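Continuing the batch. This is chain 6 of the set; chains 1 through 5 are on the previous pages. Same settings as before, nothing changed between runs. Recording input and output for traceability.
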Amino acid sequence: MEDKKYSCEYIERNKAVSGCFAMFMLFVGITFIPFFLKDGAELMAKGLLFPIIVTLEFIFIVPLYYIFFRKREGLGLGSFRFKTFFILFLLILLIQYLLPYISGVNETESWSESQMALGGYIFWINAILLIFIAPVYEEIIFRGCLFNITYFWFGNNVFGTAVIVSMMFSVVHLQYTEIRTFIVLFLVSLTLSAARVKSRGLLMPVLLHILMNAVVTGIQYAAYMLPASSG
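Output for chain 6:
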């Protein structure tokens, strides 16, 4: 009787993980669209490729999450503690700014510079999508679906799961080229994974991700505009 019960639970969990894997593959498929577009390079140069991909990922992933995944374990909103949120956000800021300073590498990524140089409404569309839209579905995929998949495959090993998820998170950010950026992304992802584990949900990681992107984008924009205004 116990074996049968275990078997049924295992099958149900395996089905849930299969659904999460399908969501992850959908995300990967949309992310790699530029490689199959004839005008991909031209769209990227004009600043149009990023909003196209982000919009597609959002309109496919978020509704599917809401319909099929939001009530699953670890995929709901979870709890929210301001003290935990503040500590983790402070850690993210240290990773983003203190680590590059200590390593002596403070140059801005070429993709980030190209975004700042867009100007006009294209810049603001990209900035809004980067700050408010991308973090929502990225956390659904990485701290939600992929975390659940890896947690299942790794026999409920939280640390191993966080490491694998963070490696994947850094690798799929194809717009970046510098190794130190991938290290920063990896460490940031570990912090977001800690938020997911602590809160048992996705609200805290999403809000941390949004606030991080807002601060980073704001500082980069200010750094780009100050020399222009002083000149």
